[in-house]
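Protein 1 of 2
SEQ + STRUCT:
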Amino acid sequence: MSELEELQKKVRKLNSRAGNAKMELHDLAEDLPVNWTEIKAVAERTYAVFAELEAAKQQLSALENA
């Protein structure tokens, strides 16, 4: 598998993880004030996956435009 294909696969997986994290955060917000103590942990996980996704997208764009 080429580097480009591997990065495309990584971006697809991260998109899925980001979608799941977004829904987890959304569900938590809907249930407030229940489990309010989980806000920080869920938000940090969501932030981390979106940051990783953004970095992978930038790498993919650079590779595609090289």
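Protein 2 of 2
SEQ + STRUCT:
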Amino acid sequence: MPHRDDSVETIQQEMTAFARRARATAARMHPELSLVSYTLLAHLDDQRGCRATDLAAHYFLDKSTVSRQIAALEKLGFVERRVDPDDHRVQVLHPTEKGAQVLANVTASRRQAFRERLADWDEADLDRFATYLRRYNAAQERLGN
């Protein structure tokens, strides 16, 4: 039976490989939309807009990193700033129509890629995998790392 440390090492290696493939896949699907940019754009769409500081806090990113990513998304015409109706000093970021369309296209492509990779998995394996990923991410959020 494998030792716990061996299993943890395998998980770390596989998660690293997964992240590397995810970045490469994102670059192929839309060369101008990095994985970080895609994630931020998806969050803006999901939240129906938010402030850059909220994005930084949500993803534990430095404000300058978010600022650079948002500037790139604005330059592509994927994000726009709107004045917050409740506080005119605050700007809220929203996906543009073009940004929402690109997001929908990339999301559909990513979903199809996952379907293809998981096509030969049975329903029980898919359910277990989904449960384990939710559990892993919940622990990450709870621990803050």
